[in-house]
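Researcher: We plan to redesign the surface later, but first we want a full-length starting point. Tokens attached.
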């Protein structure tokens, strides 16, 4: 490790020092970037900055109607900032899309002129189409031209904003309304947006920007990552308010350029790493290249999870660690909704309920079944209110009982299709039109097939047909996962979260990542080509995000083989005794050490 934490004292002192640097930059009207590692309390620093601005409003917001803008990446973060600033009318907290739309929407003439120049609009707007006189909407979130209204897609908003922010006069108009603009999780903003915000700064007048974030936590595509090339005052926050001494030490070995200090009362904690190099059986191919078989992973996960809990016996009560896996497919195998995963080309359709049928089952049918089983009929009918539930007399009560009797029988022993058929053929509440339409189109498509033919397109109808054939018990398992009633999450899905104990699993499943190669190349990372560097950083960043979620204890399991170089890197980071090779019996079960 080339840099130690000797220059860092405590997280408390570090936080005070970084805040003073932020306030100094704001007072001098200098845009800045605060780079802070995982657990450093970036949001806390941002809130402290906002509260200082509010306490000294006449200095920072001198004109009537001016506000400080705070741009976040998620609605959750926006709501948290609003709550922690007591919904101050002088703070405009919004998501990146919400802020940009607020800034650019009054300039419809400019937007109408630029929309045809966006590549994504080429199929909707040809050279002969004029948008003069149209109005611009961003209510729907997808591209559409309807009569005299054009609707913009989410991706169109940053693209248009970058074009209009290039105008110096526009930047001045924005600065008149928002003299200070703070950007949370700057590394997740779309590529090119930070450059557009600053324009010709610092020479040209404009807003003062504060970028809070960590480029090592850039894990999404088409985002900016590091912005070191911009004219910003650099401020480092070398603190860790989240993790134990052992976890902070592990992160510091991983990231010597930004050593962190734990809080003065941080517990000791632990980091334990398991590898599966001794597995002598067959390993996976393609996206799972080098990975031990799924049934061995399942047994190994159980063994490692129990080992993590056993380390604490007699010391403290500890539950099962939060298990972070690379893909939803891996989790589907563990939790029992693997056939749902196979039905859909995009996991967002079932994990984020983008598919109308999945959303109907998880957001309406399942809660109603819960309410009915617990005789909470009021909340059930409130949920069904938009579906026009029928309750006109005593006979309808019997009908509702029969309906849920048939529904529960199908849920417990039938397929998704069995459940949908019960729902589509009842008359006690209206099924969403999107679901009715999908079923009707699917049946119509099947009728048009010749004997022996199978439905191959369109994708939505094929997926619907496949989904109908899945056991409904998989929907119940999916619901538990989506509602976070299981110890499993993806490594992408927990950025910003923290858990007492983490089990991070690294293996195959996604060809964009190669964690074993990243670890092997770590000592020579400065010699990588540009192409190799980008792939290295993609794996490194996700590895860093997953490992830094742990507050007390971190356990890591590798399901692909590690080279001698990769193992040596891990031993340097965690210590020789904390890197453990798992032995296996002939049936694939891990053996106690």
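Model: Full-length starting sequence:
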């Amino acid at each position: 490790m080339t840099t130690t934490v000797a220059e860092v004292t405590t997280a408390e002192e570090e936080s005070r020092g970084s805040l003073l640097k932020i306030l100094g930059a704001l007072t001098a009207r200098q845009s800045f970037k605060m780079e802070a590692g995982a657990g450093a309390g970036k949001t806390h620093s941002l809130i402290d900055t906002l509260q200082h601005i509010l306490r000294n409003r006449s200095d920072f917001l001198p004109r009537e109607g001016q506000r400080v803008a705070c741009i976040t990446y998620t609605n959750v973060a926006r709501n948290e900032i609003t709550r922690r600033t007591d919904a101050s009318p002088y703070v405009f907290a919004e998501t990146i899309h919400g802020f940009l739309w607020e800034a650019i929407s009054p300039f419809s003439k400019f937007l109408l002129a630029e929309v045809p120049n966006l590549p994504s609009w080429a199929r909707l707007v040809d050279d002969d189409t004029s948008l003069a006189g149209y109005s611009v909407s961003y209510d729907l979130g997808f591209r559409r031209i309807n009569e005299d209204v054009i609707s913009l897609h989410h991706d169109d908003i940053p693209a248009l904003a970058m074009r209009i922010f290039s105008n110096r006069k526009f930047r001045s108009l924005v600065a008149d309304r928002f003299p200070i603009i703070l950007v949370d999780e700057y590394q997740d903003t779309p590529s090119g947006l930070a450059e557009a915000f600053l324009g010709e700064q610092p020479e040209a007048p404009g807003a003062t920007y504060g970028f809070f974030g960590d480029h090592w936590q850039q894990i999404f595509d088409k985002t900016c990552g590091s912005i070191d090339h911009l004219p910003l005052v650099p401020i480092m926050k070398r603190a860790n308010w989240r993790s134990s001494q052992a976890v902070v030490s592990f992160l510091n070995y991983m990231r010597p350029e930004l050593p962190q200090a734990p809080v003065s009362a941080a517990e000791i904690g632990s980091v334990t790493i398991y590898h599966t190099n001794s597995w002598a059986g067959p390993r996976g191919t393609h996206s799972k290249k080098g990975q031990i078989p799924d049934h061995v992973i399942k047994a190994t996960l159980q063994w490692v999870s129990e080992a993590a809990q056993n380390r604490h016996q007699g010391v403290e009560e500890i539950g099962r660690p939060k298990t972070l896996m690379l893909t939803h497919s891996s989790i589907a195998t563990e939790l029992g909704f693997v056939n749902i995963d196979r039905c859909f080309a995009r996991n967002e359709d079932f994990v984020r309920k983008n598919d109308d049928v999945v959303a109907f089952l998880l957001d309406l049918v399942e809660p109603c079944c819960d309410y009915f089983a617990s005789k909470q009929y009021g909340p059930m009918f409130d949920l069904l209110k938009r579906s026009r539930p029928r309750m006109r007399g005593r006979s309808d009560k019997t009908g509702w009982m029969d309906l849920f009797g048939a529904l529960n029988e199908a849920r417990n022993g039938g397929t998704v299709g069995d459940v949908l058929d019960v729902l589509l053929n009842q008359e006690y509440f209206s099924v969403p039109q999107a679901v009715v339409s999908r079923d009707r189109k699917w049946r119509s498509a099947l009728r048009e097939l010749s004997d022996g033919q199978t439905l191959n397109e369109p994708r939505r109808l094929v997926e619907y047909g496949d989904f109908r054939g899945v056991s409904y018990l998989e929907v119940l398992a999916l619901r538990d996962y989506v509602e976070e009633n299981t110890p499993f999450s993806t490594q992408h899905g927990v950025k910003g979260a923290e858990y007492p104990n983490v089990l991070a699993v690294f293996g195959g499943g996604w060809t964009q990542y190669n964690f074993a190669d990243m670890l092997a190349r770590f000592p020579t990372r400065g010699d990588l080509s540009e192409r190799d560097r980008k792939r290295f950083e993609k794996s490194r960043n996700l590895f860093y995000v997953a490992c830094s979620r742990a507050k007390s204890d971190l356990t890591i399991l590798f399901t692909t083989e590690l080279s001698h170089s990769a193992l040596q890197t891990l031993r340097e980071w965690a210590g020789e005794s904390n890197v453990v090779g798992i032995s296996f019996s002939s049936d694939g079960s891990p053996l106690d050490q």
